[in-house]
Amino acid sequence: MLGELRSRLWLAIAYFVTLELLLIGALAYWPQFAENLDKLRSLIPLPVLQEMADEIEASGFPAYLAGQHFFKGANSIGGLVAVLFAMFAVALEVQRGTLEIWLARPVSRARLFCERWLSGAFWLVLPVFLSTLSVPLIAGYIDERVDVWPLVLSASHQSLFLLSIYAPTFLLSCWWANPLGIGFAMLLLALFQMSLYLIENLTHYSYFRLADVRVFVEIYDTEALPVGGTLVLLALVIVPTLLAWKRFEKLTP
Q1: Residues 90/173, Cβ–Cβ less than 8 Å
Q2: pLDDT tens readout for residues 111-157
């Protein structure tokens, strides 16, 4: 397990640093953004983005944080990392022809599967929590106060959203010995879903609605995870993971 964790360490560090730099830049811009919000709203061309601006106007700093850190930063960067971690997990071994060596290790298949799955999941969610928990410190420099518990809940929801991308990609990695093909397919799917999000009449059919500004503002205000959305995301993590295990059990070199 430790070896699997170390193998992804440097990518996870780069991922965390990217999230943190984006967060620092976004929060530093908040005072200027808040002062010019009315002018900026008039320049927004899409109704969906105007809705986001309305959320920020109504809720203030928490909505801005949700838009910049979670929706823009963690969804995009984290979604990419989720695919990168998962698409190579099994498919690369099959493509290289090293599956026989891997399965010949004196450990059970269940342990091998859990090591691969959990190591990627760990490094996927840890940077989200670490960067999110740095918000109160950074916000203090711009005279904003943020409660920690809503941030923990928001990071938990964001992590679950990213795992709901990671798990289906991991399932594909168990079925398809073409990591680049898996990555390209997931990229096309993400672009399609984001395109739906930006179309007014179709936005509610977009997967990104499960982790947009509105959701995180609700989490912050109620200090609770949304029951419906959480159950959907859990199902999208658990079901593909179980299917991946069933496939992994039958893999032969």
Answers
A1: yes
A2: 889 888 999 999 999 999 999 999 999 998 888 888 999 999 999 99
